[in-house]
From TrEMBL:
The lineage of its organism: Eukaryota, Viridiplantae, Streptophyta, Embryophyta, Tracheophyta. InterPro entries: NLE, WD40/YVTN_repeat-like_dom_sf, WD40_PAC1, WD40_repeat_CS, WD40_repeat_dom_sf, WD40_rpt, WDR12/Ytm1. Keywords: Nucleus, Repeat, Ribosome biogenesis, rRNA processing, WD repeat. SUPFAM superfamilies: WD40 repeat-like. Gene3D superfamilies: YVTN repeat-like/Quinoprotein amine dehydrogenase (2.130.10.10). Belongs to the WD repeat WDR12/YTM1 family. Transmembrane segments: none annotated. HAMAP family: WDR12. It is found in: Nucleus, Nucleolus; Nucleus, Nucleoplasm. Signal peptide: none annotated. This is Ribosome biogenesis protein WDR12 homolog. The gene is LOC103330101. Required for maturation of ribosomal RNAs and formation of the large ribosomal subunit. Residues 14-81 form the NLE domain. It holds the Pfam family WD40.
């Protein structure tokens, strides 16, 4: 029987030794064995599972991935060795790791319009922004606890400011109505029906649509990028002074109650961009990274050739910059390499514009991307092919993020927030 699912007999064998950094019960004997040269990762995974079951009869079969010289095997052993110029005459060391395979597709969280933004940085909840002008707080798939009312146009970006804070958390939303808003709510609220809340502060100052908002790591400030070609900095904890409040009405079951909102102005405005600032990140106190349509700035000044829609900072030492735009290629730059502005990695399996990209918080190798082709892809820097493709959207995928380490969140023009859980990369 061909355990790899390939037809035909293997023309030759390869002598291999399987190694792993995984703890027991995942370890197999260190001795070398012979395997067919036409085995791909599926056949190799079958061999490793059989070796584990020899020592542990109760073992449940699990998929594995395989690394040779630090690169994931995505073809037959024979083709891989030929492509890399590796001799098959010696004992080949193959490292195996747990395969990243999504285990479950949750029921989608339905919205009334396009889901344009998502933030999953808090393990207690996730936050979405929608073209209906509302932000929403979710405890789980389909469980909305708060609705953030106030924007008059689509919400383009959302940011959780203090994800690990007290029960009362602060979030920010940015909108095409040229404003940002700050909100507070109780993250431990378990109500069945969502509570509608108003922002405690409205931030005005941009002259055009606000495309992106990002929080400083301390949570004391946020920055925003806009179609007016500026980046504005705002304080999130400044005291409310006399004369800067406006009155809003909040409906209660026993009549009307007035609730005050303060209005804030930018503490600083960064000028110099000549195109729309489509995405901003604030990875360090003194460093903001922005995508200025055709350039990545701050960490590196890189002409990208295509309009950039998104960026994120992560990977090795949290130093790599991932970005995507008006072509189907996800690009990754390493600003630590002097004298070059070319991407160090390029991934090209999407077929349309890339709208979002997000590094895994605890992995140097893994990130996700979303595209107008409706797909969300998980990438590993050690191979040019996506580890898996989430094809849950029936229209353009507009945003994506990780939640709780192994769940992929994605929103799209089909008005759905989709969740794919169990995609553990560690």
């Amino acid at each position: 029987m061909d355990t790899d699912g390939n037809s035909g007999d293997a023309s030759r064998v390869v002598h291999v030794r399987f190694i792993t950094k995984l703890d027991r019960p995942f370890k197999v004997p260190n001795s070398s064995i012979s395997v067919a040269s036409n085995f791909t990762r599926f056949g190799l995974s079958s061999v490793v599972n059989n070796l584990i079951q020899t020592e542990n009869p109760d073992w449940e079969v699990e998929p594995f991935d395989f690394l040779i010289n630090g690169e994931l095997v995505r073809m037959s052993l024979e083709n891989f060795l030929l492509a890399k110029g590796i001799s098959a005459e010696t004992i080949l060391e193959i490292e195996y790791i747990r395969a990243v395979v999504p285990r479950k597709e949750e029921e989608p969280s339905l919205h009334d319009d396009w889901v344009s933004a998502v933030d999953g940085s808090s393990p207690r909840f996730f936050l979405t922004g929608c073209y209906d002008g509302l932000g929403r707080v979710w405890k789980a798939a389909g469980v909305c606890t708060h609705i953030l009312e106030g924007h008059s146009e689509p919400v383009s970006s959302v940011s959780i400011i203090n994800p690990e804070g007290a029960d009362s958390v602060t979030v920010a939303t940015a909108s095409k109505d040229r404003t940002l808003r700050l909100w507070k709510f109780n993250a431990e609220d378990t109500r069945r029906n969502p509570l509608k809340i108003n922002a405690f502060k409205i931030l005005r100052g941009h002259r055009a649509s606000v495309q992106s908002v990002a929080a400083q790591t301390s949570g004391n400030m946020i920055c925003s990028g806009s179609w007016d070609c500026t980046i504005n900095l705002w304080q999130t904890n400044e005291p409310v002074s006399e004369g800067d409040t406006v009155s809003t009405k909040k409906r209660k079951t026993t009549g009307q109650a007035k609730e005050s909102q303060s209005e804030g102005e930018a503490v600083s405005s960064l000028v110099g961009h000549t195109q729309c600032v489509s995405s901003v990140k604030w990875p360090e106190r003194e460093n903001i990274v922005s995508a200025n349509r055709f350039f990545l700035t701050s960490l590196l000044s890189e002409f990208c050739g295509k309009a950039l829609n998104c960026l994120d900072i992560g990977g090795e030492s949290s130093a790599l910059v991932a970005g995507g735009g008006s072509d189907p290629i996800l690009k990754i730059w390493d600003p630590r390499k002097p004298g070059t502005s070319a991407p160090v990695y390029q991934f090209s399996s999407h077929t349309s514009w890339i709208t979002a990209c997000k590094w895994h918080e605890k992995s140097w190798f893994h990130l996700i991307s979303a595209s107008h082709d409706g797909k969300v892809m998980l990438w590993d820097l050690r191979t040019a092919w996506p580890l898996f493709v989430i094809d849950a959207h029936k229209d353009k995928a507009l945003c994506a993020d990780w939640w709780r380490g192994d769940t992929v969140l994605s929103g799209g023009a089909d008005s759905k927030l989709c969740m794919t859980s169990g995609a553990s990369v560690l």
